[in-house]
Specification:
There is one protein chain. The longest helix is centred in the first third of the chain and has 12 residues. Helices cover 18% and strands 29% of the residues. A hairpin with a 6-residue loop joins strand 7 and strand 8. It folds into two domains: 122 residues, Vaccinia Virus protein VP39 (Rossmann fold, 3-Layer(aba) Sandwich), CATH 3.40.50; 50 residues. It has 215 residues and is an alpha+beta fold. The strands form two sheets. A five-stranded mixed beta sheet has the order 1-3-2-4-9, sandwiched between helices. It is built from four helices and nine strands, in the order H-E-H-H-E-E-E-E-E-E-E-H-E.
Length: 215
């Protein structure tokens, strides 16, 4: 695992040694890191891998990260690394049950980042969009929780709006014959995200007027 900068982040209670273990690209003047670690969580190295993939200055990414990376005091060195190399655009905190239906109970957030330019420095005045949606369309068992409103319905066609805290979606249905029977059932045909609704709409407004706020 040689060559990974994040192998040398400073953890809680650790002291910098300098020399071989120095993270030469660290943005904080005079700050040095430990000698390379022999093990590290894959989600931490994943952040560095993404950084290598992006175009300098303009590359953007959305990453699902365990909240521990964002909040644990022992990982402050990782956050320092992230903020020196990325502009933090937005953090969407997902509810605890977001991935429980798939067997993962870790609390996580979606983090939106932009890769900084080569000589770009962090600015304390950079605006950050933050949101904590409660209804993301399903619960811990996988049961759908979107609020459904029928906008239009005829004998063979129907238009519904499925609303969550993230966004609203228009869904069209048509009645079709059930295989092997003379009966007809509603079959979904199209889905379209309404871009100016929910957290998505609020982020679009934030992009037009970037001032830090929480929704």
């Amino acid at each position: 695992m040689e060559g990974w900068e994040l192998l040398r982040y400073i953890g809680k209670g650790e002291q910098p040694e300098g020399g071989v273990g120095e993270m030469k690209s660290d943005f904080k003047a005079g700050k040095k890191s430990l000698k390379a670690r022999t093990s590290i969580k894959t989600e931490i190295l994943f952040c560095e891998r993404v950084w290598h993939f992006l175009k300098s200055g303009t590359g953007r990414v959305a990453i699902v990260l365990p909240d521990g990376i964002l909040t644990n005091s022992s990982l402050q060195g990782v956050r320092d690394w992230l903020l020196s190399r990325f502009q933090l655009l937005a953090v969407v905190s997902l509810p605890q049950e977001a991935f429980q239906h798939s067997g993962a109970g870790v609390k996580a957030s979606i983090v939106f980042l932009r890769k900084r330019g080569v000589d770009e420095k962090p600015d304390d005045n950079e605006a950050i969009f933050m949101a904590a949606p409660a209804n993301i369309g399903y619960d811990a068992t996988g049961r759908k929780t979107a609020r459904v409103t029928v906008k239009d319905e005829t004998d063979d066609k129907k238009l519904e709006v499925h609303s969550t805290d993230l966004y609203d979606m228009e869904v069209t249905f048509e009645k079709e014959l059930r295989p092997g029977t003379p009966e007809k059932d509603w079959q979904e045909k199209t889905r379209y995200v309404l871009p100016d609704t929910g957290v998505l709409g609020q982020y679009r407004e934030f992009e037009r007027n970037p001032e830090s706020f929480f929704v």
